[in-house]
Batch of 2 targets.
Target 1
Amino acid sequence: MRGVIMDAPGEIRVDERATPTIEEPTDAIIKVAATCVCGSDLWPYRGVEDVDHAPMGHEYVGTVTEVGDEVTTVSVGDFVVGSFFASDNTCEICRAGYQSRCVHAHPMGAVGTQAEYARIPLADGTLVATPGHPDEELIPSLLAASDVLGTGWFGAVAAEVGHGKTVAVVGDGAVGLLGVLAAKHLGAERIIAMSRHPARQALAREFGATDIVVERGDEGVARIKDLTDGLGAHSVIEAVGTQESMLQAIRSARPGGHVGYVGVSHDVELPGLELFFSGVHLHGGPAPVRRFLPELIDLIWNREIDPGKVFDLTLPLADAAEGYRAMDERRATKVLLTV
Amino acid sequence: MRGVIMDAPGEIRVDERATPTIEEPTDAIIKVAATCVCGSDLWPYRGVEDVDHAPMGHEYVGTVTEVGDEVTTVSVGDFVVGSFFASDNTCEICRAGYQSRCVHAHPMGAVGTQAEYARIPLADGTLVATPGHPDEELIPSLLAASDVLGTGWFGAVAAEVGHGKTVAVVGDGAVGLLGVLAAKHLGAERIIAMSRHPARQALAREFGATDIVVERGDEGVARIKDLTDGLGAHSVIEAVGTQESMLQAIRSARPGGHVGYVGVSHDVELPGLELFFSGVHLHGGPAPVRRFLPELIDLIWNREIDPGKVFDLTLPLADAAEGYRAMDERRATKVLLTV
């Protein structure tokens, strides 16, 4: 089969890879319908993380073509959505809602779903079947649920977004934008998107942002304080993962407020004394997307949300290298690869 | 009046200070019945924080001797307990339960309650009167409520301690020990106290600890994992405030677990990537003791809890210097000063 390989930073190739087969009785094989390039794929692409001839991709939707003997909840022919961590969904950590930290978790990045087929470990605990075969127009939204929507949603839940609250969102990538969508759905009264990019500002407003703040760093924090009677936001969603963005998020929250951080932290060192006196709640990490998938699939299936709008470039798998380039150069927010 | 002054690190003097008077119509003056030396007073004593001829002390119980014209909830003659931050208890931050970050907060350390009298700003929002004049034996416990009990309690609440949970407590000072007591009262099933000090281990057990772990750092974390099926504790109370203790706390919590940290963080830099993948909730800071005071006073008044046991040395105010020395040398867990 054909699949994406990153040979080294900046070097993307679509080439033959071994077609996956059932290895464990809990596996399923899916024919990938669509996959995409993640903001986190840019870390190795830019040389911030090591990479050496690695299969790429951890987001996916597709049709089950084969199941292991122990798989009971999905069947051949089902259209499925899964998370970027395979999970058993039965251990104590999964039952508490932290499937991305399942005691048997497999990172799907190791599988490499930017490919024609993918082996999904722990299929029962990882995949959720859609109610039927989806219309073509739903596929981008279902694919978004696999990571960026689930991650933005977790950011909002981790930030304790709720009715009547003021929410600030740091980061205008796909995750930040979908954090706005999640905040709207979860009942936020006021949603402040921090963005200086006109197209992303427009999508943020479409998803429910009530205010746009273009300033960053301390100036951005001052604007948030101005908009919140000097107190700061009740909830802040951090969707970047840098020292600046984390401090911007913590400083934008009021004492006793909540910061949900889902940007993968790189070179971040949180100063203890500042964090202590901030009085904020801090929660985040790799999103337990599986926790939210049934609800997100329902919302998408019923056309209540349209998270697929974050995809602003669609390419065939064969053109994956151009997809990486477009995201690296910020010409695209999020690239969908059709398979 | 007589009061404690720290001239420089390690230099404690009890000397004449101006007797306080009403300065604002919201002030009250109290005759201090008992005060104490806080673990946080050791930071300047040891030269970790700057100090220069400062009045000392922020914990206090006593009798109201004078009130400003606008004070309505306490009267001359009332026996009162207050927090180490004065707060209006009416602003939006106070109403959310974060009185230590009240928009009008005054740190009581600036007042210096290790003295015969103290001026309490924002008396209505800061002081809680006891149901009557307390028996002598209740005074240590009421004094504990003013800071160490309220702080340990907040650590447990911030760590989301609750029924059926396993709780680990990092730190065996007065706050850690009272974190154990709080965890017991809040319904924890298993309470693991981390201590290598026999007398403190004994008090931890008396307060409700079910297990003692003497190891520290990575070995301590490994022991907590051993005791929790490899998962880590649901809730961890951090009551030290060093890099080692913070990492020990974070690493001792399971993914999705809660760390409540109340040790004042000094020279702490939290590594972002480790925190991200830990998946824990982190909350803490200066405890909003005022939130808990009414409940804590009730529990003490009704003899349901006896937090005063953390005081293992009682001295007259005139011997404050010996009290500081005993705590610095760890000869005493917590020193009560009678006035």
Target 2
Amino acid sequence: MGNVDLQCGLRLRGAQLAYQTYGELNARKDNVIVFPTFFGSQHPANEPMIGPGMALDPTRYFIIIPNLFGNGLSSSPSNTPEPYGRARFPRVTYYDNIGFQHRLVTEQFGVERIALVCGFSMGAQQTFHWGALYPDMVERIAPWCGSAKTARHNFVFLEGVKSALCADDAWQGGWYDSPPAKGLRAMSRVYAGWAPSQAFYREKVYLDLGFSSLEDYLITAWEGRYLQQDANNILAMVATWQAGDISDNPLYGGDFAKALGSIKARAFVMPSRTDQYFPPEDNEIEVSMMPNADLRVIETIWGHTGGGPGRNPADTAFIDAQLKELLAS
Amino acid sequence: MGNVDLQCGLRLRGAQLAYQTYGELNARKDNVIVFPTFFGSQHPANEPMIGPGMALDPTRYFIIIPNLFGNGLSSSPSNTPEPYGRARFPRVTYYDNIGFQHRLVTEQFGVERIALVCGFSMGAQQTFHWGALYPDMVERIAPWCGSAKTARHNFVFLEGVKSALCADDAWQGGWYDSPPAKGLRAMSRVYAGWAPSQAFYREKVYLDLGFSSLEDYLITAWEGRYLQQDANNILAMVATWQAGDISDNPLYGGDFAKALGSIKARAFVMPSRTDQYFPPEDNEIEVSMMPNADLRVIETIWGHTGGGPGRNPADTAFIDAQLKELLAS
């Protein structure tokens, strides 16, 4: 990306936007789908939603997955050279990210219209931002398990995640040489309470998933996941998430109702019924202020995780069906 | 209590059960109410539910508040002499606690019938235990914001709380000389996401409570609360909570349905509609297996905290009204 000026006022030099594409851009350049990544993930984690016969069909659409800044592939604390590396990595907002993605789509591919922007969780929040920031360019949006603005409760949940990670002295304010494993394990256990649902644990779904016990699930699925990640990268993504707000930018100046009202795209907004930090209520309020939006609730006991691409076949199939309907509209 | 043998197999010597009474025991000894304490609290925290004209009227009833082991007044890591002090404090279960409370009631006061056992949160869990362990002695029970068995999701929430506290090196495996302040602050922020509700934060109820901002609420109400507490005491109470199960004892041998079915007391079970870790669903299941129980949901956006004695006047009034009805039955 070259040198980019961020919303926080800092300049990131030699910024990198990593992306992956699927399918071919057609001659009319009207078959574009943008599918941003979610927290703690890179583009392969989105791939279970892509395939022949699925809504995101690469034989028909040109699908671009841009990697979120901080995720370890795009510019991140872990891959940015000094003096902006590690703990000094600047706060990057969704506004920054979507601006970069817009440059990718327009400058790299010469695309002027996007058939669909969709995504899960932080990908959903990026989707909302696309709709609000480029209302004349985006024809459809399908955010699932995410909101246009990070709710205060969601913010507090993330305070717990951050605090658990940073309570480990080995974190050293971000200047660690070896990973703060104890803090990463602690935040994993905090996260494990939030991402599934009460009913997920009540029904012992983790056993169906092949874990030997609740404790094995906590160690393998949760500690195992975050131990692989860089602590500063995690914190960079959390910072983006906590600041999420489609109106917190020069275009809308904090007028959230105006930002929601400006989304021209046909929208299917899909919360999970049992999501503990992106609950359906927040989306209901948002949809009521959007001119062209439907609320389609994912009826699942998987909580937030139900929306994870390919995580739960039934929920993935539901989301895929909604995407097909939306694309056909 | 003298020397007490615990369910875990250890013997606590010179065990102390701290309690407070309100009102007078009448001649027939039939006006007794037992009102156990909740997590991180001591008997004064229950007092807002007690007063002339309230259900728990000390001019009419003899109200006993026994302090939970681990709470800093009854035997706890912080007040138990070596070799069983600090990190070596044994795991004390609800079964142990209720056995001690039974000794208090019978040996100290010669009481054979209890008109009502009631309590909030861990106090509710103790209430369920009273009903199951002494079914011929307890006439009524009113547990609110608590369950007869700690749900797995609830267990995982507590794993997050524990992990955040213990991620601080200053905890030193429980052998700290000065408090692990960073860990206490971290667990406070984890807790802050769980105890209220999504709607509590959406509606900014913390401003109505006199805090200047969300961050002031997190620091003052949450960090301020747990910084005052001993870390090992907190962990002792969490251990009791995580192991909560009215059937995990010699009387029921793990047969949860049998334990619930054995509760003869007339029961009003009162979950908060928006409780994130003692959700109404868990109580619904329990009530369906109890022979003489009603589910009375506290319709509140305060989440778990709505049930805290005196916290929210409307919720306290609702609970008080149910207690009056139950006592009149």
